[in-house]
Sequence to fold (186 residues):
Amino acid sequence: MSKEPQNEGLAWYVVRTLTKREALAAKILAQNEEIEVLCPRVRYKKATKRGTVWWKEAMFPGYFFAHFSVATHGRLVSHSQGVTGLVKFNSNIPAVPESIIQELKRELESVSVETEHEHTITLQPQINEGDEVEIAHGAMAGQKGIVTRVLEGHERVAVLLEFLGANHEVELDLFSLFLQRPITPE
Fold:
C-alpha cells in the first residue's frame, strides 16, 4: 500500500520567520510568480524618548501566509532568506482554510492600503475626555493626568495634571502621551 504525500495541492500555509523579518521574507518569496504571499502590517505613531515616530510592524509577529504547493515549493519556501520554516505539528503541515484567508483579505481591504504582497493598516489613537494618560517624554515624563478636552484637528489634548501642590490644565501633543488603553484601526 502506497502512502500519498501530504499537502500536495495548492493551499495557504503559515510561514515562520526570523524576528522582525516578516516583510523582507515575504517580499523575497513574492518574487516567485508561483507563490502568493500575504503579510499584513500595522502602522502607528508611538511616543518615544526621542519624540513621536511612526512604527510599522507585522500584524502577526514572526509569521506571514503563503499560497503554494508543499510538494513543489516546500523546500524553497522553508529555506528562503528570513524564513525559519513552515508551521507544523510533528510531520503535519496544516493548511489554512481558504475561507479564513479570504475573510482576512476582505477585512484588510476595507481598512488598509495595499502594496503588492503587503496590506498596511494605519492605527490612530482614540482618546476621550476622562481617559488617564502618562506623559512620555520631556521635563514631566512619567507624570499622570486626566484628559479634560480633545482639541479638534490638531492632535492635541488638554490634560489636568497635579504639580506644585495644585491642579493645572496643560495642552499636550497627543503623541507625547502613553494611553492606558489599546488603539483602534482608523
Notes: The chain has a mean pLDDT of 86.
